[in-house]
Every structure is written in C-alpha cells, then in structure tokens.
Amino acid sequence: MTPERWEKVGKLYQAAMGLQPDGRETFLNDACGDDTAMRRDVESLLDAAGRAGSFLAAGAMNDAAKMIVEGNSLWLVGKRLSHYQVLSLLGSGGMGQVYLADDTNLKRQVALKLLPAELLANEDRLQRFEQEALAASALNHPNIITIHEIGQVDGLNFIITEFIAGQTLRQQIAKVRMNLPTVLDVAVQVASALVAAHAAGIIHRDLKPENIMLRPDGLIKVLDFGLAKLSERVDPEKAVDAEAATKFLVQTEPGVVMGTAAYMSPEQARGKEDDARTDIFSLGAVIYEMLSGRAPFAGETVADIIGALIHKEPQPLSTLVSNTPAELQHIVSKALRKDRDERYQSVKSLLIDLRTLKQELDFAAKLGRSVSPVSRDAASKKSAQATTANAAMENAGTQAVTARPTSSAEYLVGRIKQYKPGFAAGLAVLLLAATFGYWFYSKRGSNAAAIESIAVMPFANASGNSEVEYLSDGITESLIISLSQLPSVSVKARSSVFRYKGREVEPQQVAKELSVQAILNGRLVQRGDDLTLYLSLVDARTGNQVWGEQYDRKLADLVSLQKEIVREVSQKLWARLSGTDEQKLAKNYSQNAKAYQAYLKGRYYWNRGPGPGYEKSREYFQQAIDLDPTYALAYSGLAEYYGIASTVGLLPPNENWPKVEAAANKALALDDTLAETYNSLAAVKLYYYRDWPAAERYFRRGIELDPKFAEIHAHYAVCLMSFGRNEEALAEAQRSVELDPLSPRFNYFWGFILFFMRQYDRAIEQFRKTLELDPNYVMAHEELGNAYEQKRMHIEAIAAWAKALTLSGKGDQASTLERTFAVSDFETAVRALAQKKLERLNEKTGRGEYVPAWEYVMAYLRLGDKEKVFGWLPKAVEETYGFALNLKVNPTFDTLRGDLRFQDLLRGLGFKQ
Amino acid sequence: MLLAWSDGDQSALERLMPLVYAELHRLAKRYMGREHAGHTLQTSALVNEAYLRLIDAQGVRWQNRAHFFAVSAQIMRRILIDFARARQNVKRGGGAKQVTLDEGLVLSPESGADLLALDEALERLATLNTRQSQVVELRYFGGLNEKEVAEVLKVSSRTVRTDWSLARAWLYRELSSGGRDDA
At what angle do helices A811-823 and A794-807 cross, to 10 degrees? Predict the structure, then answer.
C-alpha cells in the first residue's frame, strides 16, 4: 500500500461513513469500479469501524493499568483504604481478594475483603449487596464471622471482618483425614451458625469447605453469609432445566463455579428458586467430605459434577470409611436428599441429630477414660471394654478396625447404657474434687504475704525533658536486673515491660497480660540538679497499693538512691534477703554517679539495637570506663557492643573479636559473676577461636550464674542448633521466651531456629508472633519471607521481603522486587532484587566501606551465579564464623548441597566439636 | 517539526515517569473497584500536572502549550510502551508462568488493547499517513481531546475526527486479523 492509495481508501471510507449503511454498497461499487481490492479494503475498514466498540476509547493509561491489575493483586498491599492499612494478601478467589489489614483507629488486625468490580457492576446489585451484607452483619453468633464494616472508598467496595488466624476446612481436609469426633464437632458448630442465620432470614447459599474456618482453639467460623447471592449466574426464569443451567454455568466462570458446584443443592444447580434447605444439602456434602476426604458428587468438569448431583446417589459413606456410625450415615443421607421436601426441613432438626450423636460418642469416649472402682473384677472388665470402645472412636473415620454388623456408635451406646450409673457417680466425685481443689488453691493464692512475681514498669519521665529519658529507662532497668537476682521472685524482663512505655494501662490489665502478681510504677521528675522519684507498688490481685514512697535526691546521689529503692522494694516483696543476696544487689554498680549515668546511657542506646545511634552506646560505655576504670558492667557492655557489631556485619569481624575478648576479660577480672560477660566470652570462643567446647563451657557458666538471663539462653539455643543439637536448642529457645515472653528478639530467635530445622509452619507462626510484638522487626520480616519461600508461598514471601526492605530504608529495592514480581514471576523478581543489591554492595566497596563477604555470597546465590558464589564462599567462611556454622543447616543453600565443592567446603570448616 | 526530541526531553521523560507510574497504580486501584469509566480524563489531568511541573524544568524550553502536549504524548507513549515491553520480556525471557492466583481476578477482559502490537501498527500507519498516526498518539497516549489535538496539529477539529475514525478502524483491523497472541 502506498500513501497515495491509502489516501484514496481513506476518502472512500469517509464518504461511505457519511452514508446510510444500506447505501454504502452501491456507492462503493460505483466508486471502485473494477478495483475490487480497493472495495474490499474499504468494506473491511467499515466493518472494523462497526465492530471496534470501545477500542482505544479508554486511553493508553487505562489499558496499561489493566495490565497491572490482571497480572498482579499485590498492589493494594502497603496502601491505605480509609483507616485500614493493608498488610498482606491472605487469599484470593471468585468473590474477591482478602487482605490482612490493620485498623489504625481501633488498633486491631482485621480482614479486608475486596469485592470484584464485576459483581457490583450495576446499582441493583450494589444495593442488594449492601442489604445482604448489612443483614449478615447483624448476625451475632460465635460461629459466624463478625462483620465490622461495609465500606466504599475510591470506588472500591470492601467488607471489614474480624481476622481469623486459622485455616480453612479445605486446607484441613487436604492435610489430614479428620477423625469422627472432630467431624462432628465442626458439623455441630456450622449447623449452629446456620440455625442463627436462618432464624434471621439469611441463607448462606455457598456453604463449602473454603468458607469454613478452623481456629487453632477449635472454634469454627462460617464466612461469607449472604454474599453468594451476588455471584449467582443463573436467572431462575431462563434456566429451567439442568442442561441449560449447566451450560450457562460452564460458560461463565469455570473456576469459580468449579469450586462451588460440588456443594450446590440440586435446586440451585437447576437454577430454581431456593430456600434455607439449600444450606442443609451443602452442609450434608461438607460432612460427607470431612469424613471421606472426597466430595459426594465428583466429576472432571462442572457439567459432570452437576449431572452427578442431579441424577446420581453418592457412594454410601460406609463403603468409603469403615465404622461409620449408622446414625451418621443416616444424617448425611437425609441432608443430601435430592428432593428438598424429603430432606431435613430445618437446620435445627439436623443440628439436634448431630448433637445427640456427638453427645453419645463423647459420653462413650469419657466412659472409656474413667474407670470407677466398683469392684476389681467389674472394673477390669469395664476397663477392657472401654478401651476397645475408645479405640473404635479414635479409629472411626480414619481406618478400618473390626467390622461389626451394627455401627460402632450403636455398639458404643449400647455399652454405655449398661454402665451409666457407675460412671455418673464417678464423674460427680471428680467434679467435686476439682471444684474443691480450685477453691483451696485460690484461697491460698490470695494470701497477701507472698508476692512471687512482679513487673517493674518503665518509669515515666515526667520532667518533660527528653535528656533524662536515659535516666528513667536506666533506673527501671537496673531495678529489673537487681530484682532478678533474688531467688524467690520472678521479675518480668525488660523487653516485656518496655512495650508498655508511654502507654496508659491499668495495673491490673498489665498484671493479667504479663501474668504477674504485682506491678511497680515509678515517675521521675528532674529539675536542675534535683531529682524526685515517686514509686508505688500495686498488688494486682487486690488492686491495692501496698507501698508508696517519694525520694528527693541530688543527681549526684543517683547510686545510693538506686540501692535504697532496690532494698525498699525487696523488703516490701517479703523477700528474705540473705547476706549474699544483699551483696549481690549492690555490687554491680559503680560508686561514681557520673560513670553510672554514662553506663545507663550506653545501655539505652545498646538496647535500641544496631542502627542509627548504635555507635553512641560504645561511646558511653567507654566514657563510663574512663570515669571508673573498675566498672565491670561497663566493660561487659563494651564487649557486647563489639560482639553484636561483628556479628551483624557492621564491623570487620576479625579486627573486632579481639576487642570483644579484651573488654570481656577485663570485666571478668573485675567481677566474675556477671552472666553478660560469659555470654560475650562464649561468642569470642566460638566465632573467633572456633572452639565450641570452650564456648559451651562459658554458656553453661553464665546460665549457672544467672538462670534468668534470657539473652544467654537464646544465644546458646542458636549455637546448639548449628551443631545439630535440635532438641536442646528448642528447649533453650523456649526457656528464653518463657523468661521474656513479650520480647520480639527471643521470639524471633526461636522462629529462626525452627526455620533452620525446616519446620517452616512453626517458624512462620513464630515470626508472626514476633511481628505482633514489634511490627517493625526487620529481620523477622526477612526470615518470614525466607520461610514462605521454602513453602513456595511466593506472594507472601515477596510481601514480607518488601516490608523488610522498606523498613530498613531500602524502598527502591522493595519497589524493584514488587514491580518485577508484578510483571513477571518470582524467580525473576528475586534475581532483579539481587542485582540491585549487588550494585549497592559494589558502590559501598567502591567508597571503601566494609562489606561482609557473606553479603556477596547471598547476592550471587540469589542471582544463580554459582561460580561467583563459590568464589566468595571461602572468604565469607574465613571472615564470619557464625555464617559458616549456619551453612551446614541453612535451607537457603539447599540448591548447592549437591555440589561437590560445597561438600568440600563444609568438610573444610573443621570446627572443633 | 514539533515532535522532534530535544535534549530537554530526556529529562522530561525522567520527571514524568514517576507520575505516570503513580497514576497507573491509582488507575489499577480503580479497576479493582466499580468504576470502569474514567477514560481520558485522568490522562489529561496528569498531563496538566506534568505541564505545571515541567514548565520550569531546567533545559526544557517549551515553545508553547501545543508543543508541550505533543512532546508529552510522545513521552507517555514511550513510557507506556517501555512498561509493556518490560512486562512482555520478563514474561517470555523468564519462560516462566505469569503471576496467577487460583480462580484469579474476576475482571472483564474487554478492550485492554495490546499496547505493543498497537505501537507497531502505529509505526506502519505513520508510513501511510503521519498525521493520522499523530492523532492517535495525541488522543490515545496523550489523552488530548479533539480540540486540543487540532490545536497541536494546526488542523480543524473535523479533520481530527475523520482521521481518528479511519485510523481507529484501520488499527482495529490490523490488530484483530493475525494480530499478536498475548497482551
């Protein structure tokens, strides 16, 4: 085509467009004459114009935006809708995406369900949705998810519900075959939910394992009441027969319907008007699947499934699961009747049957466990039978035991009837004992004399002067440390109480959360050189203040003030201070008030962890040492500073471990009872001298000196794990968390250990717990991402890593990761990020800054550049022994394990064990 | 004439890019919601904002508003095509699956034009009639309305309208017959 010819085509097109469609053919015939190619060309253009519809109308921006939407549903993560901060994508399905979000007003986590545009495409549907959702939100039942809000922002329709940490019944079924008691328990709870909903005139219409959540505590929550109506594709008037309905369903949303079809009632599938009895059918199907592991009506296609559910009877449960109680078979069959008039007519009657069966079986199980001594002979006989019954219970629904002519339930019920009186009497005695025991125990517990556990709350700095912040924090902390030395009192650790800093909380509330008996509150006021400290001790069990005192001192008297407080409080705690205990309380402090102040400042910055200001902790520890060269704690602090800095890659390890050692030895010479010092020495022995037996001796000694020092337990745990001593490692990790349950750090370490042990689910749980305590804990996000990666939960992994990067000020890397993932796939995104990281490392090296070799190893590993990885590994192993130790077990290196070079490297580590 | 790239245009591109990405994400968000409309409004609002930001951008001397519109449409085209190409490349190069979630998003797959195929077709159209391809560039990529396009190209609104009609029909035919298979 030449431009000239095109111009002619264009002119003819324009002229034809100006004509009525029926006049065009004649016009073109005349105008084109013999040039049929020209005529066809114009005709096809006219045809295209007629079909083009909204082509190009939306603009390039909109079309590009659509590309994002179609390829990516993470875009909402990190954004804010109204007062909801979207945290992560929980799941996605035909009814929209569900995100975990933070309600910034009420400070709680919620689930945010985004409704897809298509479902609410017109006003009618939107209105209907709002009505349904509103009605559902009025349902108030423990087994129905609570709807907090139905919202609309920027044209996005969403529902806010309570966040349920648990799994769907679908996940549960996929994992394990559920046993009979659990199945009944779930069924009863779901039925209760339906009873409540039906009473309020709400039909679920889409009950299926995906819509039923199991919480870890066993509570069931039914989701998405009333929403199903929105996704209805069948027009009752149009679809009269099954085939038409099937065809219609298949044509619209194969995926969506596929998930639902198996639980649909026949009347739903036929597109007929439905009522509450449709839910009964669906529940029957769900129970069937819980027991047998398969849906009652199956098929390769939606059409097959629907054909089956309309025409076929499901295979009897008893042929799939031996020992299915006949009663249960009866219940399920009755729920699954094709003619709804033959079904249970209300969920209530279904619930009654389920409950009755459950009670009978529970009763049988209890009977099996309790052996009441009527006569020895009867007891042993009973016991034997009960054990059999019990075994049958536990086996039912899982595997075959001996087949019986009647169902196991009937068998059991029959047996129960014989023993009922004896059992009832035994139970009564048991109950009485339990009640009495409880009463007795609580009487004893309220004895005002014994306060055995206490939380020292962060002292409020009421001076309005942020300069003395270190002082109020420091005195609090010193008190915690001092009191922890007392054998008879359990004192909550620093990180557990410091999360309350700056918050107004009722003492009794705090006491409950921390499970302590008493709370010590303090308020510090500084005016010039004058210092006033107000203290009060509240017995949380009674709510009474048992002690209160005011101390007016000069700043210079800080040290004696400290001692005075400790002694006073200790006496109030009825601790019998022995001579050595008193000595212990006093000895860790410098007589020099200024040195003590400097030390407190050093601790203050050290506690904030590696980051901006971390360097200051070294300066203040050093200052404290300069002021009082005999100050053991200050040396110990300095050792800890260098130790952490070497471990996390702030400083070149080989130059700095000697400094750790020097400072720790100095501290040891001044005071050989500080557990902190032993912890540092253990680190030196292991990471610098690579002498594990020596390190372990130091760990043990430190723990012996201060069994309540959580840090040393956590550190020891990580090392034990590296040497494959998993059970001990888990025990130590657990101990550290018990000592300091609210510490993000120790919770994180526990997760870290679980991750290395490849217990990913538990690790994920632990990291999540850590992040509940501190949502900004970078390493926890990072490792959470690693755990998700191992689980191949890529969306979650990307979100976690992006969060870690954003929090550590690497927003550009986070967006590289997310943007690449949005337009490509997981592996590409990981490589893109590694490339970016590598560039940053090279820049740092170029500026002459220290970069740990292991960072290069990690970057090249992620880039898939094996040669470079093996090039850098020897240096990394040489430089950072902690990293080398972890290599043996680190799941991220699993891709290299088959490589001979890697095996050589591991052999070459040659650490002394 | 006006549409030649000058030294300053590269900096314009860099300045506009974050705006465009932000807008893309905002639009993506809208798509998740109920509003399918929106049309060219957002684009022109965006371009106007860009105009205000770029008007005193160093090294860029805009002859007039029309020049600015012409250049920004071209920049928009480049940014969006780069975006689409990046997406396509990783998709193919990686040989890996696209990010899909089970059951996926329930979004109507309507118009969503294949930007890359369109870009190529637009190049071909330019060899037949430069002005027609410019009309598409200004309207579709630049978000300009008929009157603004007329102002930029110094032709009548009527000409813009007829060019647009023909170009759109031609492009639609190009893209629907033996077009590319993925977008």
Answer: 160
pTM metric for this prediction: 0.42
Ranges A119-128, A287-296, A744-753: which has the least confidence: A119-128
Report the 3 state secondary structure along A432-447: HHHHHHHHHHHHHHCC
A15-42 residues labelled b (16+ CB within 10 A) or e (exposed): ebbeeeeeebeebbeebbeeeeebbebb
Helix extents (H) in A253-325: 254-261, 266-269, 277-292, 302-311, 317-320
Question: Are A767 and A751 spatial neighbours (Cβ–Cβ below 8 Å)?
Answer: yes
Whether the CB of A822 is below 8 Å from some CB of chain B: the reply is yes
Tell whether the model's pLDDT for residue A75 goes beyond 70: no
pLDDT of residue A427: 36
d(CA B95, CA B116): 19
Contacts of A52 in chain B (CB under 8 A): 168-169, 172
Residue A177 region, left (φ>0) first, then alpha (ψ -120 to 50), else beta? beta
Dist. CA A484–CA A493, nearest whole Å: 8
**Residue A206 annotated to the active site:** yes
Beta A220-222 vs A212-214: how paired, if at all? Answer: antiparallel
Mean pLDDT of chain A: 76
Rounded (10°) angle between helices A794-807 and A826-846: 20
Alpha-carbon separation of residue A620 from A380, A638, B33, B122 (angstroms): 73, 9, 55, 68
Query: Which of B48, B78, B98, B99 to probe by mutation at the A interface, max A CB count within 10 Å?
Result: B99
Tell which wins on pLDDT, A588 or A852. A852
Closest by CA position to A332, among listed A385, A290, A288 = A288
Q: For residue A478, what is the enclosing H or E element?
A: helix A469-484
CA dist A734 and A713 (Å) reads: 9
Tokens of A195: 């009873």
**Cα(A890)–Cα(A896) distance, rounded to whole angstroms?**
11
Nearest-Cα distance to chain B for A15, in Å, is 10
ipTM passes above 0.85: no
What is the rounded average pLDDT of the residues A667-671?
Answer: 88
Query: Of A186, A106, A187, which is closest to residue A146 (Cα–Cα)?
Result: A106
What pLDDT score was predicted for residue A715?
A: 92
The answer to whether residue A466 scores a pLDDT higher than 50 is: yes
3-state secondary structure at position A84: strand
Burial label, A424 (beta-carbon count in 10 A; 0-12, 13-18, 19+) = exposed
Give 3-state DSSP helix, strand, coil % of chain B, rounded to 5. 65, 0, 35
pLDDT the model gives residue A733: 94
B25 and A825 within 8 Å at the Cβ level: the answer is no
Residues of B in contact with A64 (CB under 8 A): 24, 80, 83-84, 115
pLDDT the model gives residue A562: 67
> How many C-beta atoms surround the C-beta of residue A68 within 10 A?
22
How many CA atoms lie within 13 Å of A886's alpha carbon, on the beta-carbon side?
A: 21
Distance from CA of B146 to the nearest CA of A (A): 13
Q: Which residue among A14, A69, A93 places its CB closest to the CB of B162?
A: A14
Which of A103, A206, A224, A628 does the annotation list as catalytic?
A206
| pLDDT tens-digit readout, A112-143 | 887 765 555 556 666 766 766 777 777 778 88
CA A270-A276-A280 angle, to 5 degrees, is 85
Between these two residues, A414 and A860, which has the higher pLDDT value?
A860
Distance CA A769, CA A765 (A): 6
Quote the percentage of chain B above a pLDDT of 90: 22
Band of pLDDT at residue A336, cut at 50, 70 and 90? very high
3-state SS, A33-51, equals CCCHHHHHHHHHHHHHHHH
